[in-house]
């Protein structure tokens, strides 16, 4: 199952809205086939794992390990449970159940009716965590929300004034590259108005290989300049504006203007828009006001916080947050802390 999780990690960021599943076929304690979910529309992990077995006669004496319950319904591809039964695989070991109402135990039921021995719950928590984005959408009808910021050694995330329209770097280049890896793994990225105006960010993937996330920007009164990098027509961009102050639309088919209420529960309003756009996960990169909005409403799932070695003296203080410790590590001279929401 650990190998299944390794394989499943290779598909993160490409399979949505499907989960990135890993699967391994074992015969006489030896792996004879393995695979992970292809980009959306392609084959599932079980199909690749079974297809990679050279001697198909061994399948009738093999065990299939998979991180998530095999599907039992027709979508872009046929049901994986049917394929397992067809190939005569006698034993299936599953990491965690699929809460999707189209599956939700039906895959296991299909296997058992065909005479398969089914074991569920191996490395269950690790599998559930790996599929957390998929489960968040299925169980709570909102995207998985990740908060991210970098603070100086004295707790500042940005200076009060800048000499030019560009970001002030607090973290080192290795941490910055890691952030671009994260961007390639998440479905969307969101910033507030001040960040968009002050930093003119592109919010794309640069020092890593992967898909650009959908860009989401809060622009209540539509004061972000039309020549900003956010509107360069390269990536789908969602602009959140005040429904009472909508001034104009954008002459670009890749820009979607979404009027929302700013009067209360702003984070929830944003999540509703993202859900309508079928966004599975979002990484929020600032600024402080936007991050604090999600923190106060409790609408976040994990926070990734860098602390750099530089001191800024004065400026905008980092958001205040508390949660359950999950992981902490050093990235050269940066300290990274990842916490989850209780």
The coarse silhouette is: elongated
Return residue spans where pLDDT drops below 50 for at least 5 consecutive residues. Answer: none
Q: Sketch the topology as an H/E string, one letter per element.
A: HEEHEHEHEHHEEHEHEEEHEHEEEE
Number of strands: 16
Q: Separation of termini?
A: 27 Å
What does this structure look like?
The protein is 25% helix and 26% strand. By secondary structure, the protein is an alpha/beta fold. The model has no long low-confidence stretch (mean pLDDT 93).
Topology diagram in text:
Elements lengths: L1 H8 L12 E6 L2 E7 L8 H7 L11 E6 L11 H7 L4 E6 L9 H8 L3 E4 L3 H7 L1 H9 L3 E8 L4 E3 L14 H13 L2 E4 L1 H7 L14 E5 L18 E6 L12 E6 L5 H11 L4 E4 L3 H10 L4 E6 L8 E2 L6 E8 L2 E7 L2
Parallel strand pairs: 3-4, 4-5, 6-12, 6-13, 8-9, 8-12, 9-10, 10-11
Antiparallel strand pairs: 1-2, 1-3, 7-14, 13-16, 15-16
Helix pairs in contact: 3-4
Features:
9-stranded mixed sheet; 26% strand; 10 helices; 342 residues; 5-stranded mixed sheet; alpha/beta
Concise account of the structure shown:
It is built from 10 helices and 16 strands. It is of the alpha/beta class and 342 residues long. The mean pLDDT is 93.
């Amino acid at each position: 199952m650990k190998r299944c999780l390794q394989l499943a990690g290779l598909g993160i960021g490409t399979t949505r809205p499907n989960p990135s599943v890993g699967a391994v076929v074992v015969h006489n304690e030896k792996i004879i086939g393995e695979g992970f979910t292809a980009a959306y529309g392609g084959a599932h992990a079980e199909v690749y794992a079974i297809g990679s077995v050279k001697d198909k006669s061994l399948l009738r004496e093999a065990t299939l390990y998979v991180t998530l319950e095999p599907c039992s319904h027709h979508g872009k591809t046929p049901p994986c449970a049917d394929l397992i039964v067809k190939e005569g695989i006698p034993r299936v070991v599953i990491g965690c159940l699929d809460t999707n109402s189209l599956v939700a135990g039906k895959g296991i039921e299909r296997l058992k009716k065909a005479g398969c021995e089914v074991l569920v719950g191996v490395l269950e928590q690790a599998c559930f965590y790996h599929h957390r984005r998929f489960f968040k959408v299925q169980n709570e009808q909102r995207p998985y929300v990740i908060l991210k910021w970098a603070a100086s050694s004295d707790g500042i995330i940005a200076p009060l004034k800048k000499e030019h329209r560009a970001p002030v770097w607090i973290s080192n280049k290795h941490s910055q590259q890691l952030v671009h890896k994260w961007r390639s793994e998440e479905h969307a990225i969101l910033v507030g108005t001040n960040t968009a105006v002050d930093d003119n960010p592109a919010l794309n993937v640069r020092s890593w290989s992967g898909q650009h996330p959908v860009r989401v920007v809060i622009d209540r009164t539509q004061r972000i300049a039309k020549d900003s990098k956010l509107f360069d027509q390269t990536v789908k961009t969602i602009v959140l504006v005040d429904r009472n102050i909508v001034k104009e639309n954008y002459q670009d088919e890749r820009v979607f203007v979404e009027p929302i209420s700013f009067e209360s529960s702003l984070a929830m309003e944003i999540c509703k828009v993202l859900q309508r756009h079928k966004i599975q996960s979002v990484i929020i990169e600032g600024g402080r006001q936007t991050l604090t909005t999600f923190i106060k409403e409790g609408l976040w799932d994990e926070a990734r916080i860098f602390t750099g070695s530089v001191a800024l003296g004065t400026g905008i203080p980092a958001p205040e947050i508390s949660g359950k410790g999950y992981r902490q590590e050093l990235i050269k001279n940066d300290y990274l802390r990842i916490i989850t929401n209780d």
